[in-house]
Amino acid sequence: MKKCFYCGKKIKDDAKFCAHCGKEVNNVVNAKKIKSKYSIKDVMTGLIAILLYFIMMIGQAIPLQLMGVDISNMNQTVKVLYMLGYELLTIIILICIFYNPLKQMWSDFKKNHKYYFKNYFYLWFILLGLMMFSNLIVSGIVGTETSANEEAINTMFKVSPLYIYLSAVVYAPIVEELTFRLAIRKLFKNDYLFIAVSGISFGLLHVIGSPTILEYLYIIPYAIPGFIFAYILVKTKNIFNTIGLHFIHNGIMMSLQIIASLFM
User: Fold this and answer.
1) Of the residues 5, 118, 210, 244, which has the maximum number of CB atoms within 10 A of its CB?
2) With contact defined as beta carbons under 8 Å apart, do 152 and 211 qualify?
3) Domain tally for the chain?
4) At what angle do helices 99-120 and 76-97 cross, to 10 degrees?
C-alpha cells in the first residue's frame, strides 16, 4: 500500500486515482517537484521574478520618457492601450520565467479542477467574510470608509473603467499570484513561513503610500486573501487554483462596482 500525496490516505500500489479524494496519483511526481528542498535555481527564480515585478511596476513610464513622449499630453485611449500592452508584457515575462512548472500545473489542473473546486472554493466565502468584517473594524478605527488604495482605484475607474476592469480582473490575478505566491514559494519551503510572508507582503503591497500611519491598518483586510491563497497553494501545489479564485474575487468586486456606478 502507498499513500496518496494529496490527502495522505492509503491506496493500492497500482491505483491511478485515489479512492478517497479522487485525484490522479500519476501527477504525484510533478507535484513533488514543487515541494522539493531548497535549490539555488529555485531561489534565483523566485528572486528574479519578484525583482522583475517591481522593476516593471516602477518603470512603467520609463519607455515613454526615453522616447521623449510627454505622458501628461497623451491621448487617453493611447495611454490605456500602452498600459494594457505593458501589463501584457509583464504577464508574458513572468510566464516565461515559470514556464515549466506552469505547464505541469496546468496539466494537473485540467485533470483535477473538479476536485479542487469541490474542496477549496468554500474558502472564498470565508475570505470574503473575513475581509468584510476586518474592513469594517479597521474603517471604524481609522475613520475612513475605504483605504487609500481603494480610493485610487475608484478615481481611476471613473476615468478609464475598461482599463481598470481588465487590469484588476485579468492582470492582477495572474501577475500577483505568480509573484506573491509562486515566486515567494520558491524562497520559503516551510509552509507556515511561506503563508505568513506571502500574506503580509501581499497586504503591504496594497497599503504602501497610505497618507497616514493609521491607514496602514488596512493591511489586515488586504492580507487575508494573501494568507488564504497561500494556504490553497500549499494544499494543492497548483497556482491555477489561486489564480482562478483571485480572478473570481476581483471579477465579482469590479462587476459590483460597475453596477453600483450605474445607479449613483
Assistant:
1) 244
2) no
3) 1
4) 100
